[in-house]
């Protein structure tokens, strides 16, 4: 990760009007942050946190209600389609469901060829470039004539990655890029993304509901709750010393080899409140185990807790680090016995 700024987001807001109603969904509600060149920035939160909308705002798939998105110092939040076209090439997206994001009637060669043609790339060496892209994502170039349904889920996501890379972007936004895949192929695709990012010097924004997915790959983490940033900081700091109770709950919900996986909703209790009528004061107060009177009345500011580590909680200094991931020896032995028995095909 470098300190060179790639993108600056200022007080970005996206509200959606509900059809046939005066209600408004507060999907993203005034977020500000920077994205640095060559970094992997994870945007984490439960469903309803606004993370997918934020990703789409960054690549201008949806128009912001207000706020600014600066790319190399230029505000791109209101640029016309014509002026956005050359910039779109610089920022690409990988979608959650590779099957629905690929046209089933187009072969891989046609899909990648179309992306190259739109931007006038590799005019005289298109076949070679397509073969190069497929090799880059670990697919045999001889499969270029096949159609999406002839590939596995993991292979389809590799095709989606090849399509994003085909226009030589500087930044990729991955919207839950592995959550639709089998657990067995998730690690392969994550490793591929990490490898490609390092080799090509890309900036990567990874949107996910699962902190475990970015535990070892993110440089920095943004935690979103109901359209607001509640914590932002270096990945190590956020994981070892979270400064917001919500982040702490997400960390406790990440799977590890010794605990059964639990969702954040199970640990916190209740669902994320409706973004149509967010709670007063701190939006997290209806679920927060540390909430006190002031929390429903005054909205906490996003404040610096240590250099480049900010959180929005009136009692940030009281957040206890998540318990050690080290299990007690007896529990460790019991879990080990269960795992061994499972591998031996026994039921315990
Ligand atoms: Fe919890 Fe209050 Fe902190 Fe919000 S401000 S996270 S409700 S303690």
From TrEMBL:
Transmembrane segments: none annotated. GO terms for cellular component: plasma membrane. GO terms for molecular function: ATP binding; ATP hydrolysis activity. PROSITE patterns: ABC_TRANSPORTER_1, ABC_TRANSPORTER_2. Pfam families: ABC_tran (PF00005), oligo_HPY (PF08352). It is a peripheral membrane protein. Residues 7-251 form the ABC transporter domain. GO terms for biological process: peptide transport; transmembrane transport. Its main location: membrane. Keywords: ATP-binding, Nucleotide-binding, Transport. Belongs to the ABC transporter superfamily. This is ABC transporter domain-containing protein. It comes from Devosia riboflavina. The lineage of its organism: Bacteria, Pseudomonadati, Pseudomonadota, Alphaproteobacteria, Hyphomicrobiales.
């Amino acid at each position: 990760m470098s300190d060179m700024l790639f993108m600056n987001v200022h007080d970005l807001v996206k509200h959606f009007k509900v059809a046939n109603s005066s209600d408004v969904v507060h999907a993203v509600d005034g977020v500000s942050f920077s994205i640095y060149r060559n970094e992997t920035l994870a945007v984490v939160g439960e469903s309803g946190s606004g993370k997918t909308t934020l990703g789409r705002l960054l690549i201008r798939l949806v128009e912001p209600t207000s706020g600014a998105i600066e790319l190399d110092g230029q505000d791109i939040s209101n640029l016309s389609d014509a002026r956005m076209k050359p910039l779109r090439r610089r920022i690409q997206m990988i979608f959650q469901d590779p099957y629905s994001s690929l046209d089933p009637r187009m072969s891989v060669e046609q899909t990648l060829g179309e992306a190259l043609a739109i931007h006038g790339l590799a005019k005289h060496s298109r076949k070679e470039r397509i073969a190069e892209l497929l090799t880059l994502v670990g697919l045999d170039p001889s499969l270029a004539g096949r159609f999406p349904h002839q590939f596995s889920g993991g292979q389809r996501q590799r095709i989606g990655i090849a399509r994003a890379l085909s226009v030589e972007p500087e930044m990729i936004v991955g919207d839950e890029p592995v959550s639709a895949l089998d657990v067995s192929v998730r690690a392969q695709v994550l490793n591929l993304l990490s490898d490609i990012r390092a080799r090509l010097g890309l900036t990567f924004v990874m949107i996910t509901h699962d902190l475990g997915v970015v535990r070892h790959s993110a440089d920095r983490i943004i935690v979103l709750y109901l359209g607001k940033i509640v914590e932002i900081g270096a990945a190590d700091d956020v994981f070892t010393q979270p400064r917001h109770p919500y982040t702490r709950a997400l960390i406790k919900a990440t799977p590890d080899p010794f605990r059964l996986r639990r969702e954040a909703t199970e640990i916190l209790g209740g669902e994320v409140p409706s973004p149509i009528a967010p709670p007063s004061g701190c939006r997290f107060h209806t679920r927060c185990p540390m909430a006190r009177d002031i929390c429903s009345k005054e909205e906490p500011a996003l404040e610096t807790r240590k250099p480049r580590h900010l959180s929005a909680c009136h009692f940030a200094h009281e957040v206890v680090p998540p318990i050690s991931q080290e299990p007690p020896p007896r529990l460790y032995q019991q879990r080990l016995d269960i795992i061994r028995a499972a591998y031996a095909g026994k039921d315990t």
